[in-house]
């Protein structure tokens, strides 16, 4: 019985380590804009619109999400 508990604990530990190991690092400007989204959405909008060169699908999707959120919070047009 004790052997089975050790195997289960080891399996859970390995699952947690491998599941949490793939953290993606986003562009610092996007993270900064995200942190400003609640207190100063106009500043977040300025930061996001000033970003012109991004690589990677994740960064582009994150930028589009932040751009939509900032436009919405600033009552700007979100259709384009």
Mean pLDDT across residues: 88
Shape: elongated
Runs in which pLDDT lies below 50 for 5 or more consecutive residues are none
How far apart, in Å, are the first and last alpha carbons? 62 Å
Q: Can you count the beta strands?
A: 0
Helicity, as a percent range: 55-70%
Count of the domains: 1
The value of Rg in angstroms is: 20 Å
Tally of separate helices: 4
Order of helices and strands: HHHH
Global structural class: mainly alpha
* Beta-strand share of residues: under 5%
What composes the largest sheet? none
Summarize the SSE layout with pairings.
Elements: H1 2-19, H2 28-35, H3 41-50, H4 57-73
Keyword list:
80 residues, 0% strand, elongated
Protein model, in words:
With 80 residues, the chain is mainly alpha-helical. It has one domain. Helix content is 66%, strand content 0%. It is built from four helices and no strands. It has helices at 2-19, 28-35, 41-50, 57-73. Helix 2 runs antiparallel to helix 3 (41-50) and helix 3 (41-50) runs antiparallel to helix 4 (57-73). The protein is elongated. The mean pLDDT is 88.
């Amino acid at each position: 019985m004790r052997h089975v508990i050790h195997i289960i604990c080891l399996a859970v530990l390995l699952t947690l380590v491998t599941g949490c190991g793939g953290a993606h690092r986003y562009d610092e400007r996007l993270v900064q804009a995200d942190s400003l989204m609640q207190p100063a959405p106009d500043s977040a909008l300025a930061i996001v619109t000033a970003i012109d060169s991004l690589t990677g699908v994740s960064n582009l999707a994150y930028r589009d999400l932040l751009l939509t959120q900032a436009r919405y919070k600033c009552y700007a047009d979100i259709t384009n």
